[in-house]
Amino acid sequence: MKLPQDFVVKYGQLLGDKSDDFFASFDQPSEKGFRINPLKDNPKKIQYSLKKPVEYTRTGYYGNVSGKSLEHQSGYVYSQDLSAMYVAENVTISADSKILDLCAAPGGKSTQVASLMNNNGLLVSNEINHSRAKILVENVERIGARNVIILNESPAKLENVFKGYFDQILVDAPCSGEGMFRKDNNATSYWSKDYPQQCALRQKEILASAYQMLAPGGSIVYSTCTFSPEEDEQIIAWLVEQYPTLQIQLVKKYQGMDAGQPGFANGNPNLSKTVRLWPHRFRGDGHFIAKLTNLTDEVETKKPKKKNKNKRQRQTKNLTDEQSKLWKEFARDLTSELRFNDRDLRCYGGHLYFYHHEWPDISQLKFMRPGLLLGEFKKKRFEPAYTLALALQPQEFAQTLSFSKTEWATYVHGDTVQIHNEVPNGWKLLLCDGKPFAFGKVVNKTVKNFFPKGLRFSQ
Ligand SMILES: C[S@@+](CC[C@H](N)C(=O)[O-])C[C@H]1O[C@@H](n2cnc3c(N)ncnc32)[C@H](O)[C@@H]1O
Q1: Cα separation of 277 and 252, whole Å?
Q2: Domain spans of the chain?
Q3: How confident is the model at residue 424 (pLDDT cuts 50, 70, 90)?
Q4: Is CATH 3.40.50.150 the right assignment for the domain spanning 87-294?
Q5: Burial class (CB in 10 A: 0-12, 13-18, 19+), 69
Q6: Any binding-site annotation on 31?
Q7: What is the CATH code of the structural domain delimited by 399-455?
Q8: Where is the composition biased (Basic residues) (predicted)?
């Protein structure tokens, strides 16, 4: 690979006699990894080999998964770089954790955190870029978590709502992406000598917002997929100088992982508690990870919320009597805990969501998914969402219908499926190999297709 000349000079100086190995690593293929999803029923019953677990993760394995497989479509597996999958392992998760993933698209880390939360607490997954936020929605919905809100906001806007709120904040920052050179040849074309410094300015702004949203005792996990000291050790050195209540925590180093280098910044010895995953020393594409805990016990008073009368407010209202009746009719086939109390149901523009009544008010923010999408009200009927199907275990819906792999392929392609035995008409949770993958509606031995149009694919 042709690396930018300034890059070669810079890392030649920083790495000395190790730099040849570093440069050579860009010509080696990336080794593949994937994670399984403990939110699913029988998460290990998949076609992929689980013989090679990734030792520094709870759910990671070496190997390649196909984006067109049943396991991928139904959210049982998620393909992820071997170094990227160590980041979320450093987020502390407890039963009622409030967690923010501030720079979340396409969703590698959000899906990992959500899959480890066991549907407890709250994950707010945010992405500033709208088209990337749509991809985030697709990826997060597939894993079937019930405790995720997906937003499309700038970090500064989030501060108005979430000041001092989160126990854990993940900042997987936009960066100069040097760890992407191997995968994406284009990544070298927008790299320049000054690029890391420009990225560092943006990272500081993002972290300043993150700090405002951190609860006393809470932690920030900061990561990049780049090697530049300006965006790694120097950012952490700046952060602890700027916010003295933050203390750098030790990130555990497994085989092939190196300590962050104090000499790459201001010499603060605590920087060696951070971790560097170099591509010539480790099997992934490369990452930097730091964890900092907020040792203050002061809770700043909330800023009063400014009301902007000209701003278009989304319509947020609870259910009409008719909507409530239609939902209850459908929910009879759900297990009792999933019938949801009215106070945990919200309707936005005809779409029904599960939104726990104790979650904060997000009506002034741009949201992509205000909670778990349950379905949509259409002229005097309720149509359950694909998202709900993926959030269910087979035993949680009374009406199921099992498909063969061929029938599954027909359905995800967008076609109807004929059935040969007597099955009562109505909504069915469709299963293949025991895995819920969509809702379908049986009408006189035909399963009408409700697979989302934008997600259809052929084998
Ligand atoms: C490294 S990527 C995140 C990858 C993601 N965490 C994952 O694991 O799939 C960084 C993200 O930050 C977003 N971003 C860019 N500028 C930002 C800003 N000023 N504030 C917050 N996020 C920003 C980018 O759109 C991008 O999606």
Answers
A1: 12
A2: 87-294, 321-388, 399-455
A3: very high
A4: yes
A5: middle
A6: no
A7: 2.30.130.60
A8: 303-315
